[in-house]
Amino acid sequence: MKKIPFLMIQGISIFLGFTFWGAGMAKLFHEHQFFGWIGPVWLIEELEPYGLGFYGKFIAYSQIVIGYLLVTTRYKLLGSIMMIPMIGNILIVTISLNWRGTPFVLGFLMLLNLILLWQYRDFFRPMIDEGKSKYDLKTRSGRTLNGHLVWLAGLSLQLIAIQISYINWIAACSVVLLGLLLSTLSFYLEKRTASKPTFEAS
């Protein structure tokens, strides 16, 4: 397989991330008033008669966290790995409830996710070998603790926005956008830190 262009990989990551992050937010936002294209937004209500309402919420929060890993493009590998069991869980639910069409959509999304994982295939041989491997890892941009914390603050705002949605929808959406902006700034923070000159003691 030829190397896939970076912008295409970013696009797949954002698309998958928005799909599942939006789906999770829509399930938990007040009256399901959130942007998203994949459903059903009423999954929790659908599962409650079977005593599985809490499981529905678990799926929703998993979608938010995993989708956010991808939509912000900061943790594509981690998000792609976590996406596999999540799609598997959703697939089993849809098959059990006899929802037609949904398994085919999930199959397409899984295919996109596998394309993402293929770009990080150099990471998997050391995992299989459970230690050092003769296969070298490709060089990628560094990450810093400050960048991680800024990104995490953005994720936290997504969860806070869910609660705010029960009070004011516009304020909740504003908090969502602020969180996305904050997580995006984590890249800028690291670039700025990397560009600062270092001084050695003489």
TrEMBL record:
The keyword Transmembrane helix applies. The keyword tRNA-binding does not apply. It comes from the Bacteria. The chain crosses the membrane at residues 12-30, 50-70, 77-99, 105-124, 145-163, 169-189. Keywords: Membrane, Transmembrane, Transmembrane helix. This is DoxX protein. It comes from Algoriphagus pacificus.
